[in-house]
Amino acid sequence: MIEWLQHLLVLPILVPLAVAAVLIPIDERKRTLKGAIGFASTLVVFVVTMILVRLAAGGSPGTGVYQLGNWPAPFGIVLVLDRLSALMLCLASGLALAAQVYSMARWHTAGHHFHSLFQLLVAGLNGAFLTGDLFNLFVFFEMMLAASYGLLLHCSGPVRVKAGLHYIAINLAASALFLIGVSLIYGVTGTLNMADLATKLATLAPENRNFVEAGAAILGVAFLVKAGMWPLSFWLPTAYAAATPPVAAAFAILTKVGIYIIIRLHLLVFGAAAGASTGFGQDWLVAGGMLTIAYGAIGVLASQAMGRLAGYSVLVSSGTLLAALGLGHQGMLAGALFYLVSSTLTIAAFFLLIELVERGRDAGADVLAVTMEAYGDFDEDEEEEEVGVAIPGTMAVLGLCFCLCAVLLSGLPPLSGFIAKFALLHGLFDGSKADLAAATSPADWTYVLLIILSGLAAMIAMNRIGIRTFWASIEGTIPRVVVVEIAPVLVLLGACVFLSLQAGPAMRYMQATADDLLSPLVHSERVLSAPRTGGN
Amino acid sequence: MELVLSTGIGVLTASGVYLLLRPRTYQVIIGLSLLSFAVNLFIFGMGRLRVNAPPLLEPGGVGDLVRYTDPVPQALVLTAIVIGFAMTALFLVVLLASRGFTGTDHVDGREQRGD
């Protein structure tokens, strides 16, 4: 193994962190420079994560564990790369790249330190995906959340401040739960390392098991708040609809961080090797996930504004994943991961698209005008920057993108939304028993029903809004859209189309990831037995 | 000592949760602060309560585990305090911004009858 290749693992955290610090003292008026540096940083991170995915897919031993401070695993702090974390890293940095390009058309001018905060968000996200122990997870989580508070408030205004107030309060309360859970687990098992925890749980004394399970449950609540499980999710649609479009697109991955941690901890710590605790909390995930799908679907139908519709779609996506995880069919895991990637890309693209479509209408234009007024100094620069290429047939392109979003959100063939749902349902019914009725429980059938109905709800809502916006528009004004703004939407939707075309290789990767996740002790062994560098 | 600590944590948590559910932003921030104090004490308690046991080895001293307390929870508490402090400061700014925009300190930005 080449020496420098090993250090790639820490770059997705270090590069954005350093760049965020560098960007702070640069004068706010040099926005092009700040944007260029920020873009370069995110691009570097994206390229690095692509290499990491290749490394993880190759599965060569010894590539995946990075010992900060060169102490072996249970004692030192480690970063762990496996297929799942590589996948999430790649997804997160891809989204970040798209959102950042989009912001450079105009939104980054609407407040201070946008690019620094954005880099901190990327660093926190990457850290949360890479870390191998619970307390560093907390630290990276807080870093990500602190940046997200700043980004949510970016551009200011009463609506955002009100949404931000609620968002911060609920996340601070969730962080308190997070700490209680982590310290309870540490107090009983004496370890914070996730891989070590997985090996210790099997040999735990029965009187201590309750404490660990209580700690895990409290920890789980903290993550479920972030993932947006009903009834912990009422803050989410408001906050996401209030955020500026590039921020909302980047936030599409934030709920998935909660889901990622639940997938990781649930399968690692409460996997097949956990003895009496195997499958702890699954019933709660199933019930909560299904209620989330139902709540999200009703919200999607009831939404008048596109921003709220997208927010409720986030909930539907979270609920689908949580329930799929809770049902515990091993065949569903690969499908769930595919769904995670597809739905995150779709929702991010939709968030970016909404503002472009609504720009021609009065409501959106008003908000923008107020914002530009508040930061009046930037007005003149704004005029110059808008001299981009105005795309001919703007509405045609926007309408096409909207159609793609609708097809992807409702899970119609031939795009990846359909493939993902098909893979989920296929995994559900792919029992070894020939008799379907015996292999599936009422919960499974409810899940099937909910997935299909939520798709229907998304289709109805998107149809209604699409007709009202594109065919029956009263004002008939065509929004001015710059190439820089439509390109990220096209790229994200293009990624979904690519995912549909390359579904075979993608599903093979997801299946390999699922197999890794289902053998937690192999993972633990790999982390704990990784040698120190330098040979002693 | 155990009774005092657990009572303290309990009272802080209860008051914190009560205040967190109140409608004024100032009550919410005090509630969050009390909650974070309770959490910090709880983390500290998870290292077990020991008197006269330092968390660090003394130079030249005997490395016997019985004489020392667990240093990890203390390190965790320090980190949690710093992060909690920063978050409280941030929340305070948002609180003031909200007060400035809406002219009220209600968490929903408008007064409701019956409060």
Q: What are the low-pLDDT stretches of chain B, counting only 5+ consecutive residues below 50?
A: none
Q: H/E series of chain A, N to C?
A: HHHEEHHHHHHHHHHHHHHHHHHHHH
The number of helical runs of chain B is 3
Q: Low-confidence segments of chain A, ≥5 residues, pLDDT <50?
A: 377-391
Major sheet characteristics of chain B: none
- CATH class descriptor name of chain B: Mainly Alpha
Give Rg of chain A in angstroms: 23 Å
Number of helices of chain A: 24
Mean pLDDT of chain B: 87
- Total count of strands of chain A: 2
What is the level-2 CATH architecture name of chain B?
Answer: Orthogonal Bundle
Radius of gyration of chain B: 20 Å
N→C terminal distance of chain B = 40 Å
Biggest sheet layout of chain A: 2 strands, antiparallel
Query: How far apart are the termini of chain A?
Result: 17 Å
Query: Any idea what the shape of chain A is?
Result: globular
How would you state the average pLDDT of chain A, rounded? 84
Can you count the beta strands of chain B? 0
Q: What proportion of the residues of chain B is helical, as a percent range? A: 55-70%
Helix content of chain A: over 70%
**Oligomeric state of this protein:** heterodimer
